[in-house]
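#struct-pred

JT: dropping the chains for the assembly here, can someone run the whole complex?
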Amino acid sequence: MDRKRTDKFKHILVLPALLIFVVITIFPLIFNIVLSLCNWKLGGNIQFVGLDNYIYAFKNGTFWRTMLNTVIVTIVAVAVEYVVAMILAYNINKLIHGKKFIRIIMLLPMLMAPVVIGFMWKQMFNELYGPLNHLLSLIGISGIPWISQSGWSLVAVILVDIWEWTPFITLILLAGFQSLPKEPIESARVDGAGEGRIFFDLTFKMLLPSSIVAITLRAIETFKIFDTVYIVTAGGPGVSSMSASMYAYQVGLRNFSLGKAAALCVIMLIIVLGVFQIVTAFRKKSSKNYHKNDLILEEENFSVYNISKEAEEG
Amino acid sequence: MRLCKRIFTSIFVIIFAVTLGACSKSDNSQEPQVDATSSKEQSKGEEVVINVAVGSFATSSVYSAKEQFEQEHSGVTINVVEIPFGSLYEKLCTSFATNTEAYDIAIYPSNWMSEFIQGNSIIPLDEYLAEKDNWDGLIDAYYDMQLYNDQTYAVPLDGDSIILYYRKDALENEEYKAMFKEKYGYDLEVPVTWDQYIDIAEFFNGWDWDDDGELEYGTIEAMAPKDVGGYIFLTHAITYAAHPDYPGNAFFDYNTLEPEVTSPAYKKALEEYKEILQFGPPNMINYGGGDERAAFAAGEAAMAIDWHDTGIMAQNPENSKVKENTGYALVPGTYECWNPETEAWDSFEEIQYAPYLAFSGWTSSVTSTCNNPQLAAEFLDLMDNDENSLAAVTTDGTARNPYRTEHLTNAAAWENSAIKFYNAQEFIDTILKSYTHENVQLDMRLPKAGSYLDALDLGVSQALSGDLDVDHALEYIYDSWEEITEEQGRDNQLQFYHNTYSNVTTGTGVN
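RK: done, full complex below.
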């Protein structure tokens, strides 16, 4: 009886936090879902239209084109960011002096306002006067139409994202490197394993949890990319670099078709949730494998220990 | 844990149901308030704040009027709410849709007016401005555009038309004239057709014809997506689509509202527009209006197509290298127009112009939630009085262009203004000619005009980038326009479309 009462009391204590969570997070989400089933016209009339907005979204070729752009940017940018960040973190971790200074320098791109970054890169990409094309011309590459040709404009968006967010993954991986146990690496080194073998067989696997966190966070954020695209390419030429978020913005706030935009956002949310579920499943699986490997390793070590002990005794 | 899940699910379901119920019942459209109490009575002994929503780059003349108004009306504060232009539509619509009393006055692009009238978001001003005595001074088209069903819903603050700018030191150079004639077989003059315009752009593209040590280009047009490219493309298309004998068919079929964008007129224009891309700076596809103006003033091109802003910027000695070398003309015309009835090209002996009042200027209205409509209307009257409007249109950076007869007949006012306009007479004559031309074309003035233009912009920019070919781009625009029309209701849209033309006493009027 007493335990039940204590449980109730605990739940009552949680209630204010739950209420704030509902108001701040759940209500806007539900409002968005409801809005996606309605048509909101100027003058205050909201009409229930059922699944019309979803049918519009599924039939809308431009939306799926922008979705494809978003997926390409997310996959390419996050993959490159991860590889570059891993190289940087690996090398920075080996430094004896200057780690703090490098960490501060790495924070700079993340501290800058996205609008400033957008304008800065827009100037960098200027075909005629931009420093990027000037530098490339010194090595014989000239006139890259960074933001004025389909294909290149998407490359430009990816480059800006890499520049801005590689340090973020680097910092997460660096923290991961610093928290790794030294013993397995040292024993592997004693056993004669090379740096490459140590990295791929031990360090990389032990860094998997940090890697998955970094990749998941960046993938979710990149999937919502808006500000950089809006300023650097405005989604153009045509819609060649437009992200799905930007298209939803255009439909919702430039054309004031809030119901349609809400439906686009719900579809995007479902896709992100799907990806998140896959990543979570992968993390669980790799975590299981990791522990399983640990056990095998321990058993192997134990048998090796026994064999050597027997040999010593023998 | 189970209890938590139950609580959470229950909350989710309750909120969903309540929100859905609230949304489906919501119909809080508001009747316009009528309060014609005199401003003096209202300002006696009480503090009144008038909130003015305005695009951030058009605020300077609002601040000047604010000072005057507050001096004349003690107890009244004009609160200028600056909104970035890209967010202006969203902020106004959100405020109107939710009936918040955020703004008393809205200053906005004139072609949004139909939508605001439809939503009862703005009120007729006739009774509040009964004593306004300078309506007669407005250019006819700009007066007509403020009307709906014979009621005045707005006070215009700006005029717009797109004209051609050219460099006199290029097009009037004897040596270049000879070279041009040799290459193209006819005399180099200010272009009167788009074909000539393209030839001249090609001729002056990619060499240093003004001996400043830098490459110059043939022409500059704003082509960037989500900027003003849609208007510039329409300037080309309307030339062919606005048949002088079939007014009201430039955008849609006048009777059915079927889009005209898949007609050969638009196809020809889009092909030309793509061709022009090669005769401008390499990244012209990303040039917005601001880039275009700055580049022409910096002496980068022989020609440009734009609103009056380029002309004014080119006169500002701080920004311009071309102050004394700028010439002005109507945008090129055609000897062939598309006949929407016979669905064939009609030929003309005389050149046919169709000056386009793109954007149709900033206009200002009193919102239906305003508690002091009389005061608000008087503030608008002050902004539009003869003295203030002349000062505003002759000053660089106000985003206000001429829209009254006096603005276009008083060359001395331009020459004596802060930027000391050079050759003002030619500039204002060209604008006046564009406003009063018998085939002048008003902008699209029906609810969701912005959405129609956005769809056009998306289609055109995909054609420019090569993502879609010309036919598919125009079909995309056609489908999008039809979808918007269906969504808004064809009859409703037709009513507004007809109003545009039936009110007009000049140019395209269907009388």
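JT: nice. Residues 258-313 of chain A form the longest helix (56 residues). The two ends of chain A are 65 Å apart (CA to CA).
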